[in-house]
Structures are given as structure tokens and as C-alpha cells.
Design brief:
This protein is an alpha/beta fold. The chain has 3 domains: about 70 residues, PDZ domain (Pdz3 Domain, Roll), CATH 2.30.42.10; about 200 residues, pyruvate-formate lyase- activating enzyme, CATH 3.80.30; about 130 residues, no CATH class. About 30% of the residues lie in helices and about 20% in strands. Strands 1, 2, 3, 4, 5 and 6 form a 6-stranded antiparallel beta sheet that branches. Helix 7 packs parallel to helix 8 and helix 12 packs parallel to helix 13. It starts with a strand and ends with a helix.
Length: about 425
Amino acid sequence: MAVRIAGVESGSACARKRVREGDVLLCVNGHEIHDVLDYRFYIQSERIELRIRTQKGRERTVRIRKQEDEEPGLLFETYLMDKQRRCANKCIFCFIDQLPHGMRESLYFKDDDARLSFLFGNYITLTNLSEREVQRIIDMHISPINVSVHTMNPDLRCRMMGNRRAGECLAYLRRFADAGLRLNTQLVLCPGINDGEELRFSLNELCKLRPALQSIAAVPVGLTAHRVGLATLRSFTKEEAAAVIDTIDSFNRQNVQDGQDRLAFAADEFYLKAQRPVPDASHYGDYPQLENGVGMWALLRDEFCRALEDEPPAVYARTVTAVCGQAVYPLIAELAQRAQEKFSGLHVQVIAIENRFFGKEITVSGLLTGQDILEQTRDLELGDALLFPATALRQGEDVFLDDLTPADLQRELHVPLVPAPGDGQGLLDAFLGRN
């Protein structure tokens, strides 16, 4: 496969070798280049040979001897050097299928691209991997691999994911484990479907992948108010959420008794639904599943309290309003109270925003929209600034999921809008106006 070169960085090794925009990269060190994984793997050598076809159709070999971590300087039309891989599944719990109409087109794209897993930590289902891609992962020893498993029951996995290959693809987990690749796994749990005995079965089957298996996250299904024509699903009850926690705790106790580390973790949301205290920071070790909402509560509390301890008492003539999702409201309110007790003159009003855009079942801060924040704070005295969760902005963009921007809200509310980082020090700095 040939890849067109979209640009060459000025002063780079390839620029010095007179590689030009519009030339085509054919191979690196004799290896055909299909995408960014091939490219990044084969340019790691100190000496590389690029086979180039010029715009005039002439092929030539460019030899480069580069310093450690030096880039050849080639730029491509897309980061992946290929089209992003679309999901081939029709999962009964798919969040994208539950989005309301009228949002921007990019939000409806379902990615399931193994390359994004290795580059950015995305979770993949394995169902659209070819044999060549599976073997390439093994040959390149790309690790860790983050996999959305959901269940280790092959037949149930096919039904839950709407893909006849979903069950057979579980065999890739064993191949990866045998090759020494590290695995992080995710189970999106739907009450009455893959919890209970099915959860116990999945935990025990995944445990057989040790020592390659690093962690298991159990996450409750997220349901919006826009489930039209989709499978009938419901949220976990308090008792069912408690049962999930108990199942995972029992599984971990057995592993610890066998001399192993804690392997499985329930998402913070399960503890909140079960009305149980979220474990402290020591429960989560190195926080292997933060992106799945596992340990975020404990980490934020721990970081904030440490940062607060390091601050000398002071006077802050400052009043701010902090908005957040309903799930994390008790924690943010607690942290705000701790800050007010230490800093005379500081007043932090914490507002839990109901998610009317996606539906009341959605309680996380990262899915708050600009219009919900605007409508529920418009008539309040907001003080010197309105703090909102930075996670509510689209990654890499200064825009909420509903296409409103912080500047839009600022014009309506007549108060500065400040994105509050998700770490404890950043949140404290936002309270104190040190952003």
C-alpha cells in the first residue's frame, strides 16, 4: 500500500534529502506501509531506508541516519495515514445510538479502531480485526491492548453486540496473552443480562488470562432519554448495584488469598447507585481504569486534600459558582466546604446540573451541555466566576456537546466562565482564581 506525503517539515532529515509534498511513501526498510502503526514501528531504527515514488513517477531510495527520537519529518493527510475504522457492531447498549437528532455529524461516528487503542488508549471490541492485523499486533508486540469484552460467554456476546463474530473473537484474548501482551478489559453491565452469574463467569474466565491481564472494569450501562426503537434496557437498582460490588469484592478476595493483586474494579457509579461509600485511594493502586470512571472520585478527593494541606491559610475575597453533574455533586460540595473552612472570605456555591439534554439518567459531569448549564444558572447570583467541568468540552475543542461554547454562555450570564480541571490541584486553583 502506498501513502501520499502531504508535507515535509522544514529542516528535517527528509527535507534535506529533497523529499517533496506529493511524493508517495512505498515502504520503510523494505516493509510495506499500510498505516501509522507500520510507519511508527519501522522508523524506530537508527538507520532507515525510505522507498519513495516522486510526483514524476520515478522511484528512489532515501537513506537516513537519525538521532534518537528524531522524526524523519514526513506529514500525511490524516494522523492514521488511513481512514478511521468504523464499528461493525450493533450493541444493545451503544451510547451513540441513543444520541438525540440534530447534533453535529462527527458525534454520530462509531469508532472501533485498534490503532487508536494503541495510540490513545481507546477501547476496542476486536470484531473488525483481520488475521493480518491480529498477527501484526503480536509481531510488533503492541501493548497494552484495551478491550471492551462485556461478557466472556460467546453466545451472549454475539447477542449483546449484534455481531456474529463477537464470540469467536474472544479467542484473540488468549493469543495476545500467550504472546505476552498486557490487557485491560471493560465490562459494560446491563441488569438482568450480563450481571449476576454471567458476571461471575466472565470474571473467572478473564482471570485465566493472568499475568497478561492487568485489570477489569465493570461499568453500568448508560441510558439516555432518546432510546427510540432500541432494545429494552433499564438502569441498575440500588440492590442490583450493591450485588455487582459484592460479586467483584468476592472475586478480588479470592485472588488476594491466592497471592494475586486486586484485579477487578466497579465503576464509581455503582457505589453511588448502591449508596455505599466510594473506596479511598489505596483501593485503586495505580488507577488502571480511570478512563472508565473507576477511582476518579477517590483520586480527586485525595489530590484535592493533599493540595489543600500544602496551602497556608489565607484570606480570599472571592465568590464563585461551580457546576457539576449530579453524580459527583456530594464530593464537589465536600471539597468546596473544606476550602471555605481554610480560606477566610472564600465562598463557593456548588450547583448540581440536571441533564435534560440527554435525560435524567445521565448524571456524569462530562456529558453536561451548555444549554443545561445556561438554563439552570441563568437566574442565580453567580459571583466572580462560573466554574464548569473541563471534561464537558469536546476533546481538543472549546465547545460543549450541544455546540454552545463557553463564550456563548459568558455573553448570556455576564460572568467569566472558567473550565475547572479534573485534578485536585487544578480544582483548588479554580476555586481560588489561580487558573
